[in-house]
Amino acid sequence: MRIVFIGPPGAGKGTQSVRLAERLSIPHLSTGDLLREACRLGTPIGKQADEFMQTGRLVPDDLVQEILVERLEEEDCQNGYVLDGFPRTVAQAENLDEMLAEHGMPLNLAMEIRVEYGLLLRRLVERGRDDDTLDVIKKRLQQYNDLTKPLLDYYQQRDVLHVIDGHDSPEEVFERIVTVVENQRIKK
């Protein structure tokens, strides 16, 4: 299965997408992790991405896509994957759909984990990453909100979007996700 997780920072999409990838025995691909690794290694793309990440700005589509396309072409992704943090924009979603169509492997599911703003702020402040200052957190959440509505509409129109309530315990949220995945498998 090819699955996209959508959700603001702090919604739990990283935790849940890792768990789901393990359950389905497919790779978990976090664009955040891929970008941080490129920054850590000091690759040309990583250096460019680092300039954006350090100021709380989103890394431009072309840089994200370049890193991701290389990863999706690896052998372990041929039977599916869980994407965490990509696509973030309609343009990225359209490019992903085109790439998947070229390989005859359309996206199966887009899952949005929805959590209210106050809880997101609390979770992110408690997470305590070096790049998670309150100002940076608020900027990321605003950028997420600005970009996400059109993306959600895009996937809704393609009848692959499922909204998951992310307010409860990680176990309860995961059970909701598994139910959606199992129902999708039955439809096939």
Q: How does this model look, in words?
A:
Keywords: ATP-binding, Cytoplasm, Kinase, Nucleotide biosynthesis, Nucleotide-binding, Transferase. AMP binds at residues 31, 36, 57-59, 85-88, 92, 129, 140. ATP binds at residues 10-15, 127, 168. GO terms for molecular function: AMP kinase activity; ATP binding. The protein is α/β, with parallel strands linked by helices. It has one domain (2-29, 80-183): Rossmann fold (3-Layer(aba) Sandwich), CATH 3.40.50. 59% of the residues lie in helices and 12% in strands. It has helices at 13-24, 31-41, 44-53, 61-72, 90-102, 117-127, 134-157, 170-187, and strands at residues 2-6, 28-30, 81-84, 109-114, 161-165. The longest helix has 24 residues, at 134-157. 29% of the residues are buried. The model has no long low-confidence stretch (mean pLDDT 90).
Based on the model shown, name its key terms:
single chain; 188 residues; alpha/beta; Rossmann fold; five-stranded parallel β-sheet; globular; ATP-binding; kinase; Adenylate kinase
Sheet with most strands: strand arrangement? 2-3-1-4-5
Give the low-confidence spans: none
What value does the Rg take, in angstroms?
16 Å
Put simply, the count of helices is 8
Which structural class should the secondary elements be placed in?
A: alpha/beta
Cα shape: globular
The biggest sheet amounts to: 5 strands, parallel
**Helicity level:** 55-70%
Describe the secondary structure blueprint for this structure.
Blueprint: E1 2-6, H1 13-24, E2 28-30, H2 31-41, H3 44-53, H4 61-72, E3 81-84, H5 90-102, E4 109-114, H6 117-127, H7 134-157, E5 161-165, H8 170-187
Parallel strand pairs: 1-3, 1-4, 2-3, 4-5
